[in-house]
Design a protein that fits this description.
The protein has helices at residues 3-25, 46-56, 70-79, 83-92, 104-109, 137-153; strands at 28-30, 34-37, 40-43, 60-65, 94-99, 117-121, 127-132. By secondary structure, it is an alpha+beta fold. The chain has one domain (27-153): Glutaredoxin, CATH 3.40.30. Strand 2 (34-37) and strand 3 form a beta hairpin. Helix 4 (83-92) runs parallel beside helix 6. The protein is elongated, with a radius of gyration of 22 Å.
Length: 170
């Protein structure tokens, strides 16, 4: 075989391998409406997640992340796949993933400039708590349980209750 052919074939093989590896190594898939992180479906925007949270009366986890963030990658590989964490997230929370390099509007809304950042909100969008940075599964789990319990045990009073002007009158 001629040296030019061998070099061309070697470059072609390296290119094919690189494309294959890149496609299979990517932990995230985005279909326009959702981002799939660690096998879980996350809404791409706060507006979409808020609609669902209100309809289902579930608290929200807004997760600020970026593809270049090493601690985000650690969350994707070690924390979110943990069955204890993933089951409570999927069952009891509305998940919203904000890619700070793509969704600047929501990144600014939640002041996410350095990922990762986990923001917990009520179904109406009121802040519950925030976790700036990486948190291991054993630390995150009790936080999720507390927010879930707080939400389940909270009394939901409708804003449109009839009011009586004169409460003591007969």
């Amino acid at each position: 075989m001629q040296p030019k052919k061998a070099i061309t074939l070697a470059l072609l093989a390296v290119t094919v391998f690189f494309i294959y590896y890149s496609a299979n190594a990517a932990p995230l898939i985005d279909d326009g409406n959702y981002t799939y992180i660690s096998g879980m479906q996350w809404y791409n925007t706060y507006e979409k997640g808020l609609e669902v949270a209100q309809a289902e009366n579930k608290p929200m986890l807004v997760y600020g992340w970026a593809i270049w963030c090493k601690f985000c990658e650690k969350l994707h590989k070690e924390v979110y796949p943990d069955p204890r964490v993933s089951s409570i997230l999927e069952e009891d929370f509305v998940l919203i993933a904000i890619d700070i390099d793509v969704n600047n509007k929501d990144a600014e809304r939640f002041s996410i400039s350095f990922p990762p950042k986990l923001i917990f909100l009520s179904p109406t969008g009121e802040g519950i708590t925030e976790i700036p940075g990486y948190v291991p599964a054993d630390t995150l789990l009790p936080i999720l349980e507390q927010i879930k319990t707080l939400h389940i045990n909270s009394i939901q009073i409708p804003h449109d209750l009839p009011r009586t002007e004169d409460r003591g009158a007969s």
